[in-house]
Amino acid sequence: MPETHGAQASPNLRYGSNAGQPLTRRDGYLKVTGRATYAADNHPEGMLYAVCAVSTIARGRVAHLDVEAAKAHPHVVEVITSANRPPLAGDPEAKGSLFAFRLEALQNDRVRYANQPIALVVAETLEAATEGAALLKPHYEVEPPRLGLDVERFVPETVGVGSPPSIAHGDVEAGLSAAPLSIDATYETPSQYHNAMEPYAIVASWDGDRLTLDTPNQAPYMARAAYAGFFGVPPENVLIRTPFIGGGFGSKAILAGPHILCALAARMTARPVKLALTRAQMFGPVGHRGQTRQRVRLGMETDGRLAAISHHAIAATSSFDDFIEPSAGASRMLYASPAIAITHEAVRNDIGTPGPMRAPGLASGSAALEVAIDEAAEACGMDPLDFRLANYAEVEPITGKPYSSKALRECYAKGATTFGWSGRPRAPRQMRDEDGFLVGWGMGTAVFHCPMFAAEARAALGGDGTATVETSAIDMGQGALTALAQIAADSLGLDIDQVTLRFGGSHLPDGGVAGGSGHTATAGSAIDAAGRNAVARLAELATADRDSPLFGAGNVGVVVRAGRLHRKDDESRSESYADILARAHLAEIDGWGKGARDPATVGDHALQAHGAVFAEVKVDPDLGQVRATRLIGAFAAGRIINPRLVLSQLYGGMIWGASFALHEGSSIDRRTGRIMNADLGEYHVPVNADVPLLEALLVNEDDAFVNSLGIKGVGEISITGTVGAIANAVWHATGVRVRKFPVRIETIMAPTAGA
Ligand code: MOS
Predict the structure, then answer these.
(1) Which residues sit opposite 441 in a β-bridge?
(2) How many other β-carbons are positioned within 10 Å of the β-carbon of residue 496?
(3) Which of 102, 299, 368, 738 would staple 294 via disulfide (CB 3.0–4.6 Å)?
(4) Cα dihedral 264, 265, 266, 270 sign
(5) 358 CB less than 6 Å from ligand 1?
């Protein structure tokens, strides 16, 4: 662990020249010219190709594999099965920390889900490895798979990543039975798969007991520790390089069986090995969003105030590990009520283990809650926005903590005005467009937490007046490299063009986890502290040097501007960074910084980002086809470092919300447990033609408590309000309540629809 330098107080920085600017992506040019390299672009000397053979059954055991046939293929080098797989230092069945899941690394012949790796074939060419895998022709002892939510339930120890499965506040049952108005509805969300543009790829090379991996990873230090455990080497011996990621969405925050098998194959063959999963193989071993069924019961007073909220979720997990989609947690974050109960149960299915996926818990949970709120508003005869305002949480529900900042009211107002919400008729089926399509308007509230992980960074000011900042920051398309460089430049008193950000691997200081919408806050805080410390050390040099115009000013007596230190008492007396270093005969001076949540800064505040999403849909009255035609979202998420990239994130989330509401979901064959749409032809994600007119609006929010930079994060929030907004717009168009996602034509056209 490096020491933290810069004991003296930091000089007074003037922010604003870089952060806040809508800069284009620094990596954009590399990407559009094809020069950004992804894991599968690596071809080290002597590299072999591995192909996973995966199970075609969901439960049972592998009775026979024709290893001889595969080995007889002239270019096949090695076939790894549970029969010859060498021992690992770490147990794949052991439950690891935070994002380490139990995984399948050929520890036995059991099959626990379809698409589970059952062998790895390593060959001189990809074609030979593929052919070798086909030659294995597995025979199975098949057991009937356990699928769906109507199997035995249990109460999990935790949901999500360490949250309690149930929270109770007030007497919910009493509140529900006493309330003059109520709704009681059950909602279903399907399992969904991350489907990043870039499938998993791993290129593994061993040099003695040192392992180098080129692989996309959202949390390289956590992954490094996990690999080290599996292979019995110190973590420093594992190097993970992950310069660019073609979409992660949570799936690339966890280590899966194929990673271990690829590194194992490289060790067994003493050659570098590349393993790239096919699109179909992404449906199983690398996580997904778990299927849920959620019952929401709301009790209302006649004036629309919520007397009680009960949110019960059942989620599917695998037979061998627990990740429980924390859906009901949405109800602890959104609306005020004297009685709130959230409860979770889980079922075991013969499926791959679910994991965190883009707005874990809140995407699925707020989908249910936001529709329930719309149903409750209707039951009260109220406009959905008025109903939400009547139940506005001035303090965090349940805990009663004040918010560090909360501009949700402004989001409602700005979104509603821009959308034209006040013109909305209350009853459904009132609007048609010129082509006769039913038109509906709906809304939803967006919410997300503001987590921070732990990170550190190093900033070095060079004698030429430029700086290099290092942290293992991850850009998976969200724009971190640009936003973090903006923070770096401000912390160093430089222009962004003078700052080089070195990123993307475990050879750099631990940049934490690119997840939870917390990367800019976390890595940004580390970078900010590092930059300030580097400048503080430079100021120490200058103010102690009799030859400097800054002599005697003391650190707090200088200000920083454009690569120069100025005396506060006489700003005309200044010296450039380059001159200070030159006189000290130093090539550079550096500072280290850490980023982590600071309880002293947060105090007793609740931390959340908020937003309001308004949707328009059009529905063909004869065919039941639904199109989202307009989405307007207003969001308040603390300080915005780069508005251009933030809008891009918010658009991405809104499109994802439309996808959740109208397109996405895996279909499982109930006889075999196989996913029937494990490809991008049948697993529907929006194409451009599906994307409605989008507008994201930023609502200003100054937050003095969330962290020293005032950043909340924007990666995931805009999925959350959008799903409900679209579902509610479908009701408003058709009179058919959406209680099952995605919305399907057969739901809209059911005989009772609109009745
Ligand atoms: Mo994510 S599910 O924050 O990578």
Answers:
(1) 616
(2) 20
(3) 368
(4) positive
(5) yes
